[in-house]
């Protein structure tokens, strides 16, 4: 569902929802907007193979940020 939502946004606005120069840049933009996943919010997230404990920890109200991001267009 996540991918479909991002694709539909890009089709409607003709630009990516989260643009990054690299994979890590893109994931950090997502984390800045929606918050870094934690065990409390997403059980098992720390066990994912590419999830690093050294990633910056952003704690935000992700839904509120996403609504602001999408309503600017």
- Please bin the fraction of helical residues: 40-55%
Spatial gap, N to C terminus:
21 Å
Instruction: Work out the radius of gyration.
Output: 13 Å
Number of strands: 0
Strand content: under 5%
Sheet with most strands: none
Inertia-based shape: globular
Low-confidence stretches: none
Broad structural category: mainly alpha
What oligomeric state do these chains adopt?
Answer: single chain
Q: Provide the domain count.
A: 1
Descriptive report:
The protein is mainly alpha-helical and 73 residues long. It has one domain. The protein has 3 helices and no strands. The longest helix is centred in the first third of the chain and has 12 residues, at 2-13. The two termini are 21 Å apart. The mean pLDDT is 82.
Summarize, please.
This protein has 73 residues and is mainly alpha-helical.
Give the secondary structure arrangement, pairings included.
Layout: H1 2-13, H2 23-34, H3 62-71
Task: Please name the defining characteristics of this protein.
single chain; 73 residues; mainly alpha; 47% helix; 0% strand
């Amino acid at each position: 569902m996540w991918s479909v939502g991002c694709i539909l946004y890009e089709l409607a606005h003709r630009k990516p929802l989260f643009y990054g120069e690299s994979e890590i840049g893109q994931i950090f933009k997502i984390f800045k907007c929606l918050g870094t996943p934690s065990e409390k919010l997403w059980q098992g997230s720390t066990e994912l193979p590419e999830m690093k404990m050294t990633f910056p920890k952003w704690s935000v109200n992700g839904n509120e940020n996403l609504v602001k991001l999408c309503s600017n267009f």
